[in-house]
């Protein structure tokens, strides 16, 4: 009997009790090198995002809505990177690359919840920039502390709902055949390939809800930044235009990478095959982007640079 399967009383089928994650197993000679590279990336992700959170919390000049959203973004980056990367690191060095059925459910549930919440948080950040640049006179009354908390709560609510729907959509199907997942974590498309029975409805649910939670925030982002670009064109100050363009360019870079890889993975009309290229694409939004977010969104910001410089001067040269 194949490891990870339990014989059913009928003897005609087997019930999967664990999955084997085969991601990057095509490179047996590079396992230690990949372990070192991904360990470094994960360490930078945790340190960078945690450092950004501490800096924003402790510096009063950064206590404004956009930096509050950046704090939540850093927290989300740590969360959904931590759902995936530690298990991936273990699998690089271990001969046993299995994950229990329950562990797979938990991994998928938390990953989808946090990734979806980031989708909507990016939309909230775009709306914040729209209000700050296009409606500056109403910014203070519109982007109150209560409004910011409501936007974050809504992001998590959408994440929880989508996670429940997507996880239920996958794991209500029977798994009675192969248990080898051609991916490095329990992602939805490769697991659907292993499910038994009629998967047409499950595939449609995946496509529809992935499109909704991806394209709706993307529409808010595009609308907000289109208005921002129009406002930039009307600015008379060259210095003001340069400052706004620099900030928006950084945001757009991260958004394009994130949404480009997510759409490629989940919103393809014909689904996704179990190709190594798909794993490489997934690395960008699951591992690389959480590491880059502090640099793209924050360290390019002059206000954050000044705050960081002040903290370093106080701690290293207290006198």
From TrEMBL:
UniProt-annotated location(s): Cell membrane; Membrane
List the CDD domains: 7tmA_OR5-like
Q: How does it sit in the membrane?
A: Multi-pass membrane protein
Output the SUPFAM superfamilies linked to this UniProt entry.
Family A G protein-coupled receptor-like
- The keyword Transmembrane is annotated on this UniProt entry: yes
- PROSITE patterns recorded: G_PROTEIN_RECEP_F1_1, G_PROTEIN_RECEP_F1_2
InterPro entries according to UniProt: GPCR_Rhodpsn, GPCR_Rhodpsn_7TM, Olfact_rcpt
Question: Domain G-protein coupled receptors family 1 profile spans what residues?
Answer: 48-297
Bilayer-crossing residues are 33-57, 66-85, 105-127, 148-165, 207-232, 244-267, 279-299
Question: Which keywords does the record carry?
Answer: Cell membrane, G-protein coupled receptor, Membrane, Olfaction, Receptor, Sensory transduction, Transducer, Transmembrane, Transmembrane helix
The entry assigns this protein to a family as follows: Belongs to the G-protein coupled receptor 1 family.
The family database entries (PANTHER family) matched by this protein are listed as: OLFACTORY RECEPTOR
| Main function | Putative odorant or sperm cell receptor.
Q: What is this protein called?
A: Olfactory receptor
Gene it is expressed from: LOC101401170
């Amino acid at each position: 009997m194949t490891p990870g399967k339990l014989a059913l009383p009928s003897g005609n089928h087997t019930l999967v009790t664990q999955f084997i994650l085969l991601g990057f197993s095509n490179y047996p000679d590079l396992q230690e090198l990949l372990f070192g590279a991904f360990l470094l990336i994960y360490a930078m992700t945790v340190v960078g995002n945690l450092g950004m959170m501490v800096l924003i919390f402790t510096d009063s000049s950064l206590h404004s809505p956009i930096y509050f959203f950046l704090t939540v973004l850093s927290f989300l980056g740590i969360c959904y990177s931590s759902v995936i990367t530690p298990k991936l690191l273990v699998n690089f060095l271990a001969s046993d690359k299995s994950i229990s059925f329950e562990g797979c459910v938990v991994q998928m549930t938390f990953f989808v919840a946090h990734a979806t919440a980031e989708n909507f948080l990016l939309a909230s950040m775009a709306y914040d920039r729209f209000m700050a640049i296009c409606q500056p006179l109403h910014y203070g009354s519109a982007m109150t502390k209560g409004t910011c908390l409501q936007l974050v709560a809504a992001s998590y609510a959408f994440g929880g709902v989508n996670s429940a729907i997507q996880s239920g959509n996958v794991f209500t199907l029977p798994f009675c055949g192969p248990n080898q997942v051609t991916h490095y974590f329990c992602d939805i498309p490769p697991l659907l390939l292993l499910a038994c029975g009629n998967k047409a409805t499950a595939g449609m649910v995946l496509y529809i809800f992935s499109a909704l939670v991806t394209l709706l925030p993307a529409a808010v982002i595009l609308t907000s930044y289109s208005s921002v670009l129009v406002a930039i064109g009307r600015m008379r100050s060259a210095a003001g235009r340069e400052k706004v363009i620099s900030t928006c360019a950084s945001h757009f870079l991260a958004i394009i990478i994130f949404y480009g890889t997510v759409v490629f993975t989940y919103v393809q009309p014909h689904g996704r095959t179990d190709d190594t290229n798909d794993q490489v694409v997934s690395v960008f939004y699951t591992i690389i982007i959480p590491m880059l977010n502090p640099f793209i969104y924050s360290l390019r910001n002059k206000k954050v640079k000044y705050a960081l410089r002040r903290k370093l001067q106080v701690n290293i040269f207290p006198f």
